[in-house]
Model the fold of this input.
Amino acid sequence: MLYKRHELKRKINHDKFVKDCVITMVADTFQKFDLILKWTRKLAASRELVVDKAQVTNALENAIRNKYVAAYEVSLRSPMSAAKLSSHTTLRDLARPARYSTVRLQELWFYATAKGKRSAKGIPNLSGGKL
Done:
């Protein structure tokens, strides 16, 4: 598809916005894809933008490929002994690095890497102060 210069700039800015949303959504806590999608759409709507599932999936894959985000498996069948599990056990304690694949998109959890945390924009910044 050929783009005119202003259309290309708008597409690049839109794609960057979606990527920034995805990274920000996982900068502070582990998230499932459905919640990343929901909040990315909400942030986009605050800017009068429309974002679809494919765009968020592509942004997530790009962020993983560029080491801003990592994929994890979270299992209650943790290798931790039952004696070590407590009310203070967090997702971080139960998460294990996993290989990303689109087939596993719904079962994986996502979290920002150190690089991703440094580049996260923050929800107020992304929403233009509207959320």
Remarks:
- Residues 4 and 54 are 23 Å apart (CA to CA).
- The mean pLDDT is 84.
- Residues 5-25 form the longest helix (21 residues).
